[in-house]
Each structure stands twice: as structure tokens, then as C-alpha cells.
């Protein structure tokens, strides 16, 4: 996309700032997981050769301790506080090890609550080079929040995943 996604400009700010601004009022602490330190508290991923979101999830789970953590990728620059509050409440009411929303027909594995007890299972998946988070949700008996439920409550495209220049232009048009 021409520059690192966290620094990508959108509506006078960056993807990272937009996501952090939405998350701060909802969660007690917002921590960045990445390959390099930031000005915010950052968990630096251990070095790895492959590229897959499971590495960031593993780093987050290893640092949660007990309970649940909410993983939210910078790819969701249109996310809202209200939607995050809703997703958090659904995760807190659930006994599932992973609670993730569906959007545009896809389970959003990087906007989901994960139980810290999954850390050894995630580490084993990485050791076996089984990086798919969708399969992890199936194996863990995860709960999927139906897209229809979210769309009935929230207008617009708050779970739009922005990964390409075309998606960035579409996000700009929505703001």
C-alpha cells in the first residue's frame, strides 16, 4: 500500500491512531503487538521467518496471563467504540475460547476475543506450521457473531478490512 499500514493516513490521522482511539474507552489497556517497538506499550514478536497473523496472536496470548484478551488488527480503521463495546460484551457473556464476528461473509479472526489458555495450543500450531486462525476457531469451539446481528445494530462498514489501495479508497469515501 506504499507505506506501513499503522502509519497509513486516513481522514487526518493514521490507521493505528484510529484503532487505538476506538479501543481505549472500551478496554482497560491497549497494547501493540508488532515486530518493532512503538510509542505505546509494545509486545515485540519473537523473530520468525514466515508471515502469518497467528504469530501476533501467539505473542499477545503469551503476555495476557489469565483470562481473555481482545485482538484487534490495525486493518480495521473504521472500527467504532460502540461496536467494540458490543463485541466485548458478547465475548464476556460467552463461554467459548474464541469469540469473533463475521463480516462480508468472513470470520474476522483479528477482531476477536481469545482466551489466554489457548497459548499452548497456538504455540503447538505454529510448531507444526499450521497457521490458519479459522481452523483454530473451529478446533477451539469458537463462537461466531453473525454478520446479520452486527449489521442490524451498526451502520456503515465498521469491520471493513483495509488491505489494498482500492479498499483504502473505499474507506475514504465512507468517511
Kindly identify the CATH topology: Spore Coat Polysaccharide Biosynthesis Protein SpsA, Chain A
What would you say the CATH architecture is? Alpha-Beta Complex
Oligomer designation: single chain
Tell me the CATH superfamily: Spore Coat Polysaccharide Biosynthesis Protein SpsA, Chain A
Distance between the termini: 19 Å
* Largest pleated sheet: 5 strands, mixed
Description:
- It is a single chain.
- This protein has helices at residues 15-23, 54-64, 81-93, 119-127, 133-139, 147-153, 165-174; strands spanning 9-10, 13-14, 32-34, 42-44, 68-72, 98-103, 106-107, 111-115, 143-145.
- It has a single domain (5-174), classed as Spore Coat Polysaccharide Biosynthesis Protein SpsA, Chain A (Alpha-Beta Complex), CATH 3.90.550.10.
- With 175 residues, the protein is α/β, with parallel strands linked by helices.
- It has seven helices and nine strands.
- A hairpin with a 2-residue loop joins strand 6 (98-103) and strand 7.
- It is globular and about 40 Å long.
- Helix content is 38%, strand content 18%.
Amino acid at each position: 500500500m506504499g507505506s506501513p499500514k499503522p502509519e497509513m493516513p486516513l481522514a487526518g490521522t493514521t490507521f493505528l491512531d484510529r484503532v487505538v482511539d476506538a479501543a481505549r474507552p472500551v478496554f482497560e489497556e491497549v497494547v501493540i503487538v508488532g515486530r518493532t517497538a512503538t510509542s505505546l506499550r509494545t509486545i515485540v514478536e519473537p523473530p520468525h521467518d514466515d508471515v502469518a497473523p497467528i504469530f501476533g496472536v501467539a505473542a499477545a496470548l503469551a503476555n495476557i496471563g489469565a483470562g481473555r484478551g481482545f485482538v484487534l488488527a490495525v486493518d480495521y480503521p473504521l472500527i467504532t467504540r460502540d461496536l467494540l463495546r458490543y463485541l466485548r460484551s458478547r465475548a464476556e457473556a460467552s463461554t467459548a475460547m474464541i469469540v469473533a464476528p463475521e463480516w462480508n461473509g468472513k470470520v474476522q479472526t483479528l477482531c476477536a476475543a481469545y482466551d489466554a489458555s489457548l497459548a499452548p495450543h497456538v504455540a503447538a500450531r505454529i510448531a507444526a506450521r499450521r497457521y490458519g486462525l479459522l481452523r483454530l476457531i473451529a478446533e477451539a469451539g469458537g463462537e461466531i457473531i453473525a454478520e446479520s446481528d452486527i449489521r442490524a445494530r451498526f451502520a456503515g462498514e465498521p469491520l471493513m478490512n483495509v488491505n489494498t489501495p482500492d479498499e483504502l479508497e473505499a474507506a475514504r469515501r465512507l468517511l
